[in-house]
Amino acid sequence: MHAEDPSAEGKMAGAPPGAGAHHRHDADHDHEHDHEHPHDEAEAAIEARVRALEEILTQKGYVETAALDRLVETYETRIGPRNGAHVIARAWSDPAYRERLQSDATAAIAELGFGGRQGEHMVAVFNGPGVHNLVVCTLCSCYPWPVLGLPPVWYKSAPYRSRAVMDPRSVLAEFGCHPPQEAEIRVWDSTAEIRYLVVPERPAGTDGWTQEQLAALVTRNSMIGVSYALGPEAAS
Ligand code: FE
After folding, report:
1. Phi, psi at 44, each rounded to 5°
2. Of 72, 102, 201, 215, which has the maximum CB count within 10 A?
3. Full domain range(s) for residue 144
4. Is there a domain that residue 65 lies in?
5. Distance, CA of 226 to CA of 136 (rounded, Å)
6. How far is the CA of 139 from the centre of ligand 1 (A)?
7. Is 190 part of the annotated catalytic residue set?
8. How many angstroms is it from 183 CA to the middle of ligand 1?
């Protein structure tokens, strides 16, 4: 199921050093395999298994329900997309930081105190007037947890994983994102080894804004690349 996918390599035009690494999916994260039956049914089966496993582990005293709840809450809120928003706001405000983020994203992100599981090898990709970046994991759901939190359901869905590669513009359109026709769409395939963070363009009309104000315009989706950052009107 997780044999090397040769097509996963070819589309990373302009890839930074290391980005051509094999799409290895044998790291310590769960995988969702494709099934013959409908997605909902597959998902329900997985959820049932997770619940059963959780119950057994809890009964045997191996895990505490409260600890599990705290873990999920931590990734949804504290280690959620707000971390990534701070990284982006800093990159918008501080050209030296932007350069560090470009040359070594893992280190630049760690500077702000964010790192750890599923964020060990980060690469920042920058949107610009002629370039729009989009992140996907074609084989499962590799995602940069320390800066974005837990992946949304659609990110893990089979349609997104295949269509983001085959027809990125129509996927973007569904999210209300319409890069100009002449813009190049770069699709980045996340792997167990490399996780991508999209740096959206700084919205016009935000001169003189503080990093805190700017961070409020940075959405999770804009850091996956399925949308732009919010405009200044969103802050009022
Ligand atoms: Fe993956």
Report:
1. -60, -40
2. 215
3. 81-235
4. no
5. 10
6. 5
7. no
8. 27
In-domain check, residue 42: no
Write down the catalytic residue from 142, 177, 190, 222.
142
Question: Is residue 181 helix, strand or coil?
Answer: coil
Residue type present at position 108 = A
| Phi, psi of 189, deg, nearest 5 | -95, 105
CA angle 187, 229, 125 (to 5 degrees): 35
Cα separation, 134 vs 171, in Å, equals: 10
pTM (2 d.p.): 0.72
Catalytic residue among 140, 177, 190, 222: 140
Q: CATH number for the domain including 217?
A: 3.90.330.10
Clarify whether 141 is annotated catalytic. Answer: yes
Q: Which residue has the tokens 């990159």?
A: 91
Q: Distance between CA atoms of 121 and 128, rounded to whole angstroms?
A: 23
Active-site residue, 236 included: no
User: Which two tokens mark 112?
Assistant: 């702000």
**How does pLDDT run along the chain (236 residues), one tens digit per residue?**
343 343 433 334 344 444 444 455 544 444 444 433 445 677 677 778 888 888 888 888 877 778 877 777 666 655 689 999 999 999 999 999 999 999 999 999 999 999 988 888 999 999 999 999 999 999 989 999 899 988 888 999 999 999 999 999 999 999 999 999 999 999 999 988 899 999 999 999 999 999 999 999 999 999 999 999 999 999 87
Answer for the pair 157, 228: CB distance below 8 angstroms, yes or no: no
Query: How many domains are there within the chain?
Result: 1
Instruction: Name the active-site residue from 7, 137, 222, 227.
Output: 137
Distance 133 CA to ligand 1 centre (A): 18
